[in-house]
Amino acid sequence: xxxxxxxxxxxxxxxxxxxxxxxxxxxxxxxxxxxxxxxxxxxxxxxxxxxxxxxxxxxxxxxxxxxxxxxxxxxxxxxxxxxxxxxxxxxxxxxxxxxxxxxxxxxxxxxxxxxxxxxxxxxxxxxxxxxxxxxxxxxxxxxxxxxxxxxxxxxxxxxxxxxxxxxxxxxxxxxxxxxxxxxxxxxxxxxxxxxxxxxxxxxxxxxxxxxxxxxxxxxxxxxxxxxxxxxxxxxxxxxxxxxxxxxxxxxxxxxxxxxxxxxxxxxxxxxxxxxxxxxxxxxxxxxxxxxxxxxxxxxxxxxxxxxxxxxxxxxxxxxxxxxxxx
Length: 326
Known about the structure:
- The chain is mainly alpha-helical.
- The chain is 78% helix and 0% strand.
- It is built from 14 helices and no strands.
- The relative contact order is 0.21.
């Protein structure tokens, strides 16, 4: 099985194109953080799905950038550029926040940095689709534990069956370190979901998100400098890094933050489980990472488990909304 890092060299024109969209992305982000514009009309589910498409195609672009800057260097560029864009757009206030507010933002930033760093270590070793399939177990576990409904154990079992198929019974078909990094990224993803929701409640618009990105960027900057050094300021690398930041951080995180204001965290978590299919498509279209029939079936099982959990959550909310008979 080929890994994302098996084809070193210069990114192809097909994956270099997203680096040329900063102006359009900045306009879209400005609309999103204000809560109006066309992004707000998508509805919470549409916001989550749009964010998922953006983040996975951004991840495919990031994989193509790793031969230039390394996994830690790519994460540093992604977080640093995203933080600068968000701080300029949001201009968050630094005063008037409680110690609890700042604690929430710092933990959110740590979760964001950990999720990105671990995930990029994973996709440097295993294909994008399987990496996201393993990572998404974190949000799915959050949904099962938060809902406390027995039927969600069925969906969890279905997802685990998919992971068993994906691993070939022991992850011999995948790099064990890559699989471990993906699972650890999933745990950080669950923490990201929880603290993103808390941050959205404590800070207006996307101010908390901008501050958390700055925290994550500062945490990763020394690691990126140690691994990549002067490569980080190469113009081509910077341009591609900006594309990764906009597609993988600025747009999706803003859309998800807006969605979490109108969606329960468990429902949001299971919607995130659709991302393995999006990642597999991005890996195939951009990175030429074809999946075997078994891997495709495994991803389908995880997606089916996610959809089942979503239907369970929606049905539960509808049942609560129905008036009791007199």
